[in-house]
Amino acid sequence: MSTPAAAQADSVADGAPFAARATGLTKAYGSGETAVIALDAVDVEIARGRFTAVMGPSGSGKSTLMHCLAGLDSVSAGQVWLGTTQITGLSERELTRLRRDRVGFMFQSFNLLPTLNALENITLPMDIAGRKADKEWLDRVIDTLGLGDRLTHRPAQLSGGQQQRVACARALASRPELIFADEPTGNLDSRSGLEVLSFLREAVDALGQTVVMVTHDPGAAAHSDLVLFLGDGRIVDEMPDPTAEAVLERMKRFDGIRKS
Ligand SMILES: Nc1ncnc2c1ncn2[C@@H]1O[C@H](COP(=O)(O)OP(=O)(O)OP(=O)(O)O)[C@@H](O)[C@H]1O
């Protein structure tokens, strides 16, 4: 979403005021009478250098929105841009390259490789792409995430919170334009979850990254700058500078609609 502050913070390599943008984004699964409209003509702008949370009831289209914005899923209608690049219409090969070069992902399951140590896991996507890490940036990410003394540990030797921090460092390592996090605290105890949220916040505030996070947790959403609320495949509300209480109250209104 555009705000004056976000517009000012726009120091973008490719000159686009938004990290991602969609217009008329529609996604249908199946066809005919059994078709499910997961996203219904959504217009959305993800401000650069900001932390955006996406919330809404189960089945409201949160993951679908994230997947379509990240070029992980095709759209049925509408346009999606990453920076100034229109990604709708790109070939699968072009999309793979774009995701690899410009997008970072964090999922609920950390997807770390058990035989590699923390540092090897962090640099794996770049190693696969044949790219050299920017050492200064990598050191800063590792330092910010407090992983300096854990780099030679394998995932089994790390706590859940530490593993998720490694996954966070992996998403940040190539300095992507945009990081998508899908329930990044879903599998963590509350202390580790809080740690990861603080680091995502830090990635935005100290490192200037852009983060989009799907979550069910009002406490997690309270770490963001802006919450987008999805209902039945549409963006039905938004809340700048959210608090956990205000988000919870807003979510209750979805329950009220369902029960009435
Ligand atoms: N591959 C698929 N095939 C058919 N329908 C799908 C598929 N993926 C999602 N859907 C449907 O699209 C709608 C939106 O799903 P989506 O996973 O985006 O919701 P969500 O808000 O992320 O839900 P949750 O909070 O439960 O993860 C749902 O009705 C879902 O059943």
UniProtKB/TrEMBL annotation:
ABC transporter domain location: 20-257
Entry-linked SMART domains: AAA
GO CC annotations, alphabetized: membrane protein complex; plasma membrane
Keywords: ATP-binding, Nucleotide-binding, Transport
Signal sequence, renumbered to the chain: none
Pfam name, any one: ABC_tran
Superkingdom per UniProt: Bacteria
InterPro entries named among the record's database cross-references: AAA+_ATPase, ABC_transporter-like_ATP-bd, ABC_transpr_LolD-like, MacB-like_ATP-bd, P-loop_NTPase
Name of protein: ABC transporter ATP-binding protein
Organism lineage: Bacteria, Bacillati, Actinomycetota, Actinomycetes, Kitasatosporales
